[in-house]
Each structure stands twice: as C-alpha cells, then as structure tokens.
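Practice problem: predict the structure.
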Amino acid sequence: MHHRQCLAGTAAAVLIAASAYAQTPSPTTPPPPSASPHETGTTQPGFKRTPSPAGAYVYIGWPNDGQVLHTTHIKVWFGTRGFGVAPAGTTKANTGHHHLLIDVAPPPMDQPIPNDKNHLHFGLGQTETVIDLPPGTHTLQLLMGDADHVPHDPPLLSKKVTIRVVAAEGSSADTR
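Answer:
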C-alpha cells in the first residue's frame, strides 16, 4: 500500500511539472544573457509563430451573434474547420488550442496570449465551457494558440460574437 501511495505521489508531481512546462512559452532566439535591450533591438524576446493551414478557421457555435440570454451562467461551445485541437504543449502540425477573448480586442499576434479573466485558456483541448457574465452587452471571440499559447500565422481568429445578458431571477445555464 505504501508503495502505491509513493507511486501516486510521484505521478502527481510529474504531471504538475509537465503541465507547468507545457504552459511556459519558448522564445525563438533569446538574447545572450549579457545583451541589453539596445543591443538586441527589442525589450521582449520574439516568439516563433506556427503556420496555420490555408482555409482553416475557428468559430463560436453557441451563443449566436446578437443573442439575448436570460441567464448570467452561459454555455459557450467552439469549433474549428480544417484544423485540429490538441492540448497546450503538444507540437503537431495543424493543431492548437482555444483561447476565449471576453470583452477585449485581440492581443498582439507575436506574443503568448495573456491568461486572465478576459483571456481564458483551454489548454487541455476543451471545446466548450460555461462562463459567468454580469448583465449587459459582451463580446466573445476565439483565438487559437499553438503549443506555447502563441497565435498561429496567419492567426485563427473567430468572428466576434456580441451578446446581451439579461439576468432573470433564479436563472440557470442557457443550453439552447
């Protein structure tokens, strides 16, 4: 029994370390340790962008643009065409993972996508989620990221969906 507990603890530690490693973006050519920003011509290292295939696109399948939702607990599902979904840290041609942009403009395309309340990461390869939004008008947009959370080249950015949330007393998830 003790042996199983040790193995389980070791496995958990390896998974946590692997997950942390997979979430860390890798710069293409970091400046030498002694180089100053003036010598390199930049204040941040550049990131290699992964090519996206011609004709590929990403979309929000639900909710629809212009939708009025009578709940603050909203199911969102996403899709791709001509492109696969893979977990963060997975380097495989023509794949990436979703990032949901909420009420923000797209971030810089040559840097890792931020990870905060307006930039949600789905690094396990998820294709749907449930989010809580306050009453009001909101925008949702998807941006695919590569293994290191950097947008592809050209970027796979969905059309922006605008929704209006009208909370009803005792509202629950809108499932269509």
